[in-house]
From TrEMBL:
Domain VanZ-like: from-to ranges: 10-157
Protein name, entry field: VanZ-like domain-containing protein
Keywords from the named record: Membrane, Transmembrane, Transmembrane helix
NADP is among the record's keywords: no
Keyword Membrane: yes
Pfam families given in the database record: VanZ
Transmembrane segments: 6-24, 83-101, 107-124, 145-169
Organism (species): Pseudothermotoga hypogea DSM 11164 = NBRC 106472
Length: 179
């Protein structure tokens, strides 16, 4: 693929990894304040739109709670924090996929990199949190990796759809030439 795209994507990858590690290395007080701030904004939006009482919202909340904490009932502010983990690493998985594909031109390599690189960053992030007054959590690493896998699956589906559309358009053009 184009060297310029590879350069742009590696730059985005480095910057986004920096963002992920920045949030991960905030001390416990700052991290709690950030989660509370996001929770308060979401609560205000919910008060305007009244979404939290809908059946879909309750099902999603309960499903995420069960998936991410098992039988333990997770406070909503903690669910917001875990969702942020998931989202940050989903974006990291997406950027990693397109970087690896731009660099290698191979889908399999893109899939491998877009799962393994975020998993490495997640492990490093949890390790570094120990030095900032926060505990390391294997559960958080699993949430992070599940975000990266979700981003990877999304990219793979988009890639496959684009290739199928290209295939059918070229086949149609070939049939027009023959006719």
């Amino acid at each position: 693929m184009n060297r310029r795209w590879t350069f742009v994507l590696v730059t985005i990858l480095i910057l986004w990894t920096g963002v992920v590690l920045y949030f991960g290395t905030r001390n416990a007080v700052v991290s709690s304040r950030q989660a509370r701030w996001a929770y308060d904004i979401l609560k205000r939006i919910d008060q305007m739109l009244d979404l939290s009482e809908t059946e879909l919202f309750v099902r999603i909340k309960n499903g995420l709670n069960k998936l991410w904490s098992g039988d333990r009932k997770m406070p909503t502010v903690e669910l917001v924090r875990k969702s942020a983990h998931f989202g940050l690493y989903m974006v990291l998985g997406i950027v990693s996929f397109w970087f690896a594909f731009a660099y290698s031109g191979k889908v399999l390599m893109a899939v491998i990199v877009s799962v393994s690189l975020p998993a490495l960053v997640a492990s490093l992030d949890e390790y570094l949190q120990q030095f900032r007054g926060r505990g390391a959590s294997l559960n958080d690493v699993m949430i992070d990796v599940s975000g990266a896998v979700t981003g990877t699956v999304f990219c793979f589906v988009v890639f496959t759809l684009v290739r199928l559309i290209q295939f059918f358009l070229s086949k149609k053009a070939q049939q027009r030439k023959e006719a």
